[in-house]
Design brief:
Elements lengths: L1 H8 L7 H9 L4 H10 L2 H5 L2 H9 L3 H21 L14 H4 L5 H4 L9 H11 L1
Length: 129
């Protein structure tokens, strides 16, 4: 998101309401964006995710590009797991319900409600090994 915001600010990529709103967060100063990235923790970056989903819902081209890329990465990871047909797939975290409808039909068909949190699931998987 921040990369796309800076590229749009520099005229390299198309700007959008999302990139404009992100620049406003940083006082329309690209140096503030760069400074933020030097000290930010993962949760700081993740805090922008709801803004991306909100703009995507409104048809923002940059927001949809970011989410399409993220979903492609998630699906590539799922592909590496070589899930059996009918294997349960649970998405966890606050953004899970927002990602679920963006998955391809193959993975949406596997989606189930989680029975536990991520740690509980990891323990259950480890116990099966």
């Amino acid at each position: 998101l921040l990369e796309q915001t800076l590229l749009a600010h520099d005229g390299v990529r198309q700007a959008s309401p999302l990139t404009d709103s992100m620049m406003a967060v940083f006082r329309n100063n690209p140096e503030d964006v760069v400074e933020f990235t030097t000290n930010a923790k993962p949760g700081d970056f993740g805090g922008f995710a709801p803004k991306v989903f909100e703009h995507a819902k409104n048809g923002d081209i940059v927001a949809n590009w970011i989410l399409d890329k993220a979903v492609a990465d998630v699906e590539a990871s799922l592909g590496a797991l070589d899930l059996a047909a009918g294997a349960p797939l649970c998405l966890l975290g606050g953004l899970a319900p927002l990602y679920a409808p963006r998955l391809s039909a193959r993975y949406r068909a596997l989606l189930k409600e989680p029975l536990d949190d991520a740690l509980g699931g990891a323990v259950q998987m480890a116990a099966r090994l």
